[in-house]
Each structure stands twice: as C-alpha cells, then as structure tokens.
Amino acid sequence: MSNPPVFTWSDRFLLGHRTIDDTHREFVDCVDALLRARDAEIPAALDAFARHAEAHFAQEDAWLSAADFPTGGDCHIDEHAKVMASVREVQELVAKGEVEIARELAQALMDWFPGHADYMDSALATWLVKKSHDGRPLVLRRKEHL
C-alpha cells in the first residue's frame, strides 16, 4: 500500500475535559496506526483499536448513563454500539484474510470522528466540566498552519 492516509491529532479536536481529550488523542493514534499498518500488522492494529474503543466507549457510556445526565445520552451510547458492531464484523473478516476491509474501517472512523466529537462528545465534556467545576470547558487551541 503506497501513501496511506494519515490521521493526526489536531487541537481542533480538544473539548476541554482532560480525560476525554487524552482518550481522543489515543483514538486518533490507534486509527492512524491501522491506516498505516502493513497487511501482516493489520490484525494486531485492529485488535489494539478494538481494545481502545471498548475502554473509551465504556467510560463515556458510564458518564452518559448517570442519572443526572440530560436527555440525549441514549443516542450517543447507540452510536458507540454501532461502531463496536462494525469493528467486530471487520475483525471476523480480517481473521478470514480480508485485511483491506480494516483500512476501509479506519478511513470511515477518520471521517466519523470529527463530527462525533464536535456534536456528541462536546456536549458530554461540557456537562462533565459544569458538574465538576460549575463552569464551561476552557479550550486553548494552537493556530494550525496548513
């Protein structure tokens, strides 16, 4: 595979909640590793992403399931479940030797993540910061040079 797509962390993904931001950096790194993996490395890279996603989504789902979380958490939880179902399907196909499908998943995750973070995770981060500090997240972003 020549010139694989690259998924790199950007401050535009920052949401102002340290745990979420750190987990999102790891998400980006795992997806990038999957995009860059050679065929023989795909199963391990996919398994690493799956482990990350399970822990990542479980943490967010626990916050979203809190009794005092405002409405809308179920939609967010459902989106996580759909991603994990896709990951499991791809793991089965990769186990049968269909490694290219893992790169397609990684590309889909790269396309999906910014919108998910902007619309769903930002609401979660805002709620968590309000709950813990009685304020809104403060996000300082470096200027991006294109």
From TrEMBL:
Occurrences of domain Hemerythrin-like (ranges): 17-128
Which organism is the protein's source?
A: Thauera phenylacetica B4P
Query: Which PANTHER family does this one have?
Result: BACTERIOHEMERYTHRIN
Record's InterPro entries? Hemerythrin, Hemerythrin-like, Hemerythrin-like_sf, Hemerythrin_metal-bd
Q: Which SUPFAM superfamilies match?
A: Hemerythrin-like (SSF47188)
Q: Name one GO molecular function term.
A: metal ion binding
Q: What is this protein called?
A: Hemerythrin-like metal-binding protein
What family is it from? Belongs to the hemerythrin family.
Q: Which UniProt keywords apply?
A: Iron, Metal-binding
